Amino acid sequence: MQSKIIIDTIKPQPQVLLIGRADKTVIDIEKNENIKIENCRDIPEAISTFAGNQFDVIAINTEALDKNLTLSLRNLRQVNPDSKIFLLAQMWQEPLAAHIVAESSNGAKLLDDYYICPAVITTSKPPGEEVQPEGSPSQEHLERIAILERLVMEDELTGVKNRRYVREFLRQIIEHAKQLSLQVTLLIFDIDNFKQYNDLFGHPVGDNILKQAAVLMQKCCRKQDVVGRIGGDEFAVVFWNLPGENIISLDTNQEERRRIESEHPKQVINICERFRNEINKTDLPALGAEGQGTLTISGGLATFPRDGLTVMQLFEQADKALLEAKRSGKNRVYLVGSDSNQQS
User: Fold this and answer.
1) CA–CA separation, 156 and 8 (whole Å)
2) What kind and span of H or E run contains 282?
3) Phi and psi for 236 in degrees, rounded to 5?
């Protein structure tokens, strides 16, 4: 899974400045002799070393950001007023990237957009072909590419992430969690008796139910949690705490650390319960007078490192908990290894 940064310019050799690490773990530069690449360590170095250059694209790795972020980006924008400035972020850094892109300084945007790594930088036309000005068919081509790239990561019907994105995000956040002793919890849930909605009322009604479920789940989650549709009426949510919210500190003794790691995060359980209650109250006008209060979900929770250490293990354990929730009457979210087998 990779993003593609396309330079749409009539220049014969567009210029790109990469700030931060430029190896393949961060950004993959497509072999293109038409692009001139410069690289530097951080934003202050970029300003002092390349102040006279006018780059078409400036791509900043998140590791190059510092505590003076707003000032640094404003200064970078001042010396490169015509450049497109992008942030390169790992999947788990997407909430941070979106927040920075949304910020402005005196009404001016600090960044144009962000891309998820690894990213490929290329021109809108293959080497040797003339690049057409903006507004030409090449612009339409770029828009089609943008749509296709979004579909690589998003579910077309609901707008949440797709299965491929969820699994890769979970893999990355597990690696991140190992370094910072974070807890990561996977929820898998589906709509109870979903087939009957399609059979009785038609697929458009079923599609509307899926969209409503996705919207409600996103409203209940925190900004960093990732909601995805992984197939049919089945959804997955990856919950994780930002480093500053981590309940396991470096000062936590080993006994307390083991106790915390052995528990499911209470905040996640509360989110699941809030979502389950909200979806129980959902009004479905397409079902007529009987539509309100008929929609329920069943789900299963599995937490890293308590229930599994890999993506496969967490999916297997969450699936087991989901099946147990179904067998026990539906309309509930089960925890892996729960002795009481209670609703979340």
Assistant:
1) 26
2) none
3) -135, 145
Q: Do residues 318 and 335 lie in contact, with contact meaning Cβ atoms separated by under 8 Å?
A: no
> Measuring CA to CA, which residue among 208, 188, 190 is closest to residue 198?
208
CA–CA separation, 160 and 181 (whole Å):
27
* DSSP E strand boundaries for the chain: 3-7, 15-19, 36-40, 57-61, 84-89, 104-105, 108-109, 113-116, 119-123, 161-162, 184-191, 226-231, 234-240, 297-304, 333-335
Q: How many helices (H) and strands (E) are present in the chain, helices listed first?
A: 10, 15
Q: What is the rounded distance in angstroms from the CA atom of residue 87 to the CA atom of residue 98?
A: 9
Please give the full DSSP string across 226-280, using - where no structure is assigned: EEEEEETTEEEEEEE--GGG-S--TT--HHHHHHHHTSPPHHHHHHHHHHHHHHH
Least Cα distance to 111 among 133, 93, 88 occurs for: 88
- Report the distance separating Cα 140 and Cα 4, nearest Å: 16
For each of the domains in the chain, give its residue range(s) and CATH number, in order of start. Answer: 3-153 (3.40.50.2300), 161-335 (3.30.70.270)
| Residues 45-101: tens digit of each pLDDT | 998 888 778 888 899 988 888 878 888 898 898 888 888 999 988 888 888 788 888
Tokens of 148: 């296709």
Among the residue ranges 56-65, 186-195, 246-255, the one predicted with the least confidence is: 246-255
103 vs 232, more confident = 232
Which residue is it, tokens 């209470």? 266
Q: What's the whole-model pTM score?
A: 0.71
**Token representation of residue 36:** 């001139």
